[in-house]
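Hi all, a correction to my earlier message: I attached the wrong file for Phytocyanin domain-containing protein. Here's the right sequence:
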Amino acid sequence: MAKGYLTAVSLVMVVAIMAPCIDAFSHIVGGSLGWAVPPNATYYDEWAASPRIFGVGDKLVFPYRPGQYNVYQVNKNDFDNCTQVAPISMYARGPTTYYLSGKGDYFFYSAIAKHCELGTKLHISVTSDTEGTSGDRFSFELAPETAPTPSPHVSTHDEKSKSSAAISSPTLLPGLASALFAVVLVW
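and the right structure:
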């Protein structure tokens, strides 16, 4: 019994530690504009164009306010004609996150008023089994990294305050959180 419980706790810890490493790519639809009536009818086509790659498991995040916009997933015919003959999915409580579950073409538009006709529509193609990208990681040149020159440090704290130093390593925190979770489970 105890061995099985310990195995389950260990599994939970491994999943908690590894989860950030296996997360898919999130595409914020429309970039800084979000999901809104665009400045031109080809705005979302341009946003989705190369070098952006959509992969299986990626997420599309449609940032919008409920009541002002919505997201309909439709077939190509409804997309081309801005009709709602056979909608696949409808989302009205923004923001909406849509998971790309397989390869193929995906069609979305906002069905409020004339939003679709004005260009609030998106067609993407998922062509990769691997995580997608939004193009180049850095569109600028990074300066070479140099180590800072250490400066002399004079401590003004007494010995008691040294023992109450805060943990500031971001890579240490997930491990500590998992360990604390495991202790709580065992207790």
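Sorry for the mix-up. DSSP finds five helices and eight strands in the chain.
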